[in-house]
Amino acid sequence: MTIAHHPDEEALAAFAAGTLDEPRSVVVAAHVALCPHCRAIVAACEQVGGALVEQAAPATPRAGALDEALARLDEAAPPSMVVREAAPDCPAVLAPYEVGRWRWIGPGVHWRKVEVPESEGTRVFMLKAAPGSSLPHHGHSGVEWTCVLQGAFSHDLGRYGPGDFDAADNTVDHTPFVEEGNTCICLVAMQGDLELRGWLGKLMQPFVRL
Ligand SMILES: [Zn+2]
Fold first, then answer.
1. What is the whole-number distance in angstroms between the Cα of residue 9 and the centre of ligand 1?
2. Which DSSP letter does residue 209 get?
3. Within 10 A of 88 (CB to CB), how many other CB atoms are there?
C-alpha cells in the first residue's frame, strides 16, 4: 500500500493528545492504523506529551491516589468503549460503534451511518461507490475528512487510494470520480451538510440527511 496523502501534523498532534473531537479522531485512527509514517509521528507526540505530564506530576503521589484514579476511570468508561469485534466489512477502529445498514443514495452509491457521538455538527459515515461511478458534484458547509479503506477515487487535487487521507473544507467544491476495478469504500467525518449540485445532486439531497 502506497499512501500519498496524510493528515497534517497539527491534526496528528491533536489526535495524539486526545484533543481532537471523536468523529474526526475515528477517521484519523483509521488512517494511522494503515500508515506507519503517521503512526511514528503519533508515537513521538505521545512521548513528548508523556514527558510533559511526568514533569508536571508531583514527585510523590499521595497514598491511595492511584486507586482513586483507577476507580474514577472505571466509573467514567462510557458504554461505547466496550471492546467487541468490528463488523466484517468495517475497519477495526469502528469496533466500539454501531454501524447502520447500507442505504442507496444514488446510482452506484451507498452510505451507512456510524454511531459516533456527534461533535460540533460533525458526523461519521461510510460511503461505498461502484467502480467507474462518480460521486455527486458537491461542496461542504464545513470540513470533511475522509480515509479511503478500499478502491480509489480521484478529484482535482489528486488520486486517493487505500489508506489515503483527504481533508476538504468549505472552499472545496468537487466531483470525486471512482476508479475502475474496485468498489471504493471510505470512512468520512463531515461537519455540516453536504451541498449537492446539479440535477442528480438535487435528486439525491433528501437521502443524505444523516
Ligand atoms: Zn499517514
1. 10
2. -
3. 5
H or E, element range at 46: helix 36-56
Distance 53 CA to ligand 1 centre (A): 26
Show pLDDT as tens, one digit a residue, over the chain (210 residues).
789 999 999 999 999 999 999 999 999 999 999 999 999 999 999 888 777 777 776 655 566 766 776 666 566 544 444 456 666 678 899 999 999 999 888 888 898 999 999 998 899 999 999 999 887 667 767 788 999 999 999 988 899 999 999 998 777 767 788 999 999 999 999 887 767 666 666 666 665 554
Place of cell 484514579: 69
- β-bridge mates for residue 159, sequence order: 154
Query: Cα–Cα distance between 38 and 43 in angstroms, integer?
Result: 8
Inter-residue contact 43 to 33 (CB < 8 Å): no
Measured in angstroms, how far is the CA atom of residue 36 from the centroid of ligand 1? Answer: 7
Residue 69 alpha carbon to ligand 1 centre in Å: 34
Ligand 1 center to residue 141 CA distance, Å?
Answer: 26
Of 124, 152, 178, the closest CA to residue 4 belongs to 152
Cα-to-centroid distance, 6 and ligand 1 (Å): 4
The yes/no answer on whether domain 1-210 falls in CATH 3.40.50.2300 is: no
Ligand 1 centroid distance, CA of 62 (Å):
41
